[in-house]
Amino acid sequence: MNGIPRRSDQGEEALPETAAAERQQNSPWTPSSATPIAATRSRAGDSREAPSQGRAVVLADLNAYYGKAHAIKGVGLDYAANQVTAMIGPSGCGKSTLVRCINRMHEEIPGAYTTGSIMLDDQDIYGENVDVVAVRRAVGMVFQKPNPFPTMSIFDNVAAGLRLTGGRRGGKRENIKDRVERSLRGAGLWEEVKDRLSEPGIGLSGGQQQRLCIARTIAVEPEVILMDEPCSALDPIATLKVEELIDELKTRYTIVIVTHNMQQAARVADTTAFMLAGELVEVGPTERIFTKPSDSRTEDYVSGKFG
What we know:
Layout: H1 17-25, E1 57-66, E2 69-79, E3 84-88, H2 95-102, E4 112-120, E5 123-124, H3 132-138, E6 139-142, H4 154-164, E7 168-169, E8 172-173, H5 176-186, H6 190-193, H7 206-219, E9 224-228, H8 236-249, E10 254-258, H9 262-268, E11 271-276, E12 279-285, H10 286-291, H11 296-302
Parallel strand pairs: 3-10, 3-11, 6-9, 9-10
Antiparallel strand pairs: 1-2, 1-4, 4-5, 7-8, 11-12
Helix pairs in contact: 4-5, 4-7, 5-7, 7-8
């Protein structure tokens, strides 16, 4: 396996979000160091294997650049396994850039690169001999705007990545139909779409499309899920369904969510991190961040004085 250099290829063109998502979610998982992922946790009436566990993510002195522009400045941050961590801060503070560094999508932008380290448990995802597509399978991404593959059916949207990897799990071939159903159930969408799986994914409502994208992400069984403002384009009812789903998913995955919605962070996150101008200002239990922050800048932000 060829190593992936930390500094990105200056000549590589940036990918549109849908293409980047397809490349990320449809890439084969090949490293011998990969940790097997167990099946999704059971629900009443389902026959499933024991739940998997997410993996801790540790950022150490992380810096991210767009050419000469220094976007992320020496961030050190631990994301606990099987917890939800919310990233908050005003627009342009670096939240989205930071999470895109975690699955190495930042380097897809010409001239963009990182320094520092990101550890997925004991594996440095920027280390030598690391397969970047393997990183993007282990660390899934849900984007701000729902982006189902426009030419594919509901079923094929979920199955796309499975077909590319041969539907393999733990070295064994698994029935793709079963995996698709399990993923749609895991995303809380099965009952709503089970009778129209052959219909186009883009025909679903906005909230359903976002849950379809979540199903597509969990179908390839990641260990960490990054969510970049996943509810910003959704109505309140659809937002509530996604938030309820996040609470269920954290039993199986480590979740990082970027949000501008302070109420949403308070509802879904175990831990909240506040960023400002590319720097990590404060991180702690969500209740403390919103009631007794230790930094005056955090207090000003969560109380609405700026942002």
